[in-house]
Amino acid sequence: MSIRDLIPWGRDNGNRGPTFYRDDQHNPVFSLHREVNRLFDDVFRSFDSLGSLPSFNAGWPKVEVSETAGDIKVTAEIPGIEEKDLEILLDDDVLTLRGEKRAESEDKERQFSERCYGRFERRIPLGYEVEQDKIEARFRNGVLTVVLPKSERAQSQVKRIAINH
């Protein structure tokens, strides 16, 4: 093998001169470079803001958080789980939803599944003090709804700011 074999352009292209390989479909090195970059981007994109390792069920269950002047309402979609396998905790103004989704059967013939099973934990920072003795939670048709009333102190700390023209 000579050094001329390593040059990334063709030597004999008729009368048109050398051909430079700048198109990914013709040059396998550029194609490999692009794919490796894409793989690294996918891996690092899956890291969450806390820097933990990526997991397949990160961000599950999906939640919706809404706020009014008097309370915070958290709704989570958790299909396929029973109420006894679900735990709701409030610690230091952080709501934690944790549980385990169990497989319904041991199907050894199954070749492909997009369903996820196993333990999950989702932490939701509230940003307000809540009245812990008045928290309500309902679990119906795979949807968990938690209503957290704000404390009087948290409600009084809200200040409306006027916009000057």
UniProtKB/TrEMBL annotation:
Residues 54-165 form the SHSP domain. GO terms for biological process: response to heat. SUPFAM superfamilies: HSP20-like chaperones (SSF49764). Pfam families: HSP20. Belongs to the small heat shock protein (HSP20) family. Signal peptide: none annotated. It comes from Bosea psychrotolerans. PANTHER family: 26.5 KDA HEAT SHOCK PROTEIN, MITOCHONDRIAL, HEAT SHOCK PROTEIN 21, CHLOROPLASTIC. This is Heat shock protein Hsp20. Keywords: Stress response. Transmembrane segments: none annotated.
